[in-house]
Amino acid sequence: MKTLMTTLLACAVLATPALAQSVTPKFEHMITNIPGKSLIAVEVNFPPGEPSAPHYHAKSAFLYVYVLQGAIESQLEGEAAHVYRAGDSFFEPPGAHHVLGRNASATEPAKLLAVFVVDSNDKALTVFDKEGHKQ
């Protein structure tokens, strides 16, 4: 399982545009009563005003997001943008195109916990759009 996490993080680092946000693994475990599925949690830190490039997550990934600190502005394709503050949560269904994600504050850091329920053999948790085109 540690090898899977190392592979996933390497893919995320290689696919990540040069942004100052950081991603830290927090938890990974196979879901023993759902064969082929894993639960993976990562902490994402956003410096003040920092955006995330448009992206998709693994096609099998159901994503639950909990804002730990600050405020995050988020938008999925076809939906309105929304600001989530510390203590708020939201989800992204499998295949969703995340077109906007950023720290809503120009002066305070923001932090979130992203929890993935994903096929255990998926290699990349996050795939960023190439040159602004949908994938």
TrEMBL record:
Keyword Lyase set for record: no
Top-rank taxon: Bacteria
Pfam families, alphabetized: Cupin_2 (PF07883)
Protein name per its UniProtKB record: Cupin domain-containing protein
Domain Cupin type-2 intervals: 43-116
InterPro entries: Cupin_2, RmlC-like_jellyroll, RmlC_Cupin_sf
Species per Swiss-Prot/TrEMBL record: Bradyrhizobium pachyrhizi
Signal peptide start and end residues: 1-20
The keyword Signal is annotated on this UniProt entry: yes
Keywords: Signal
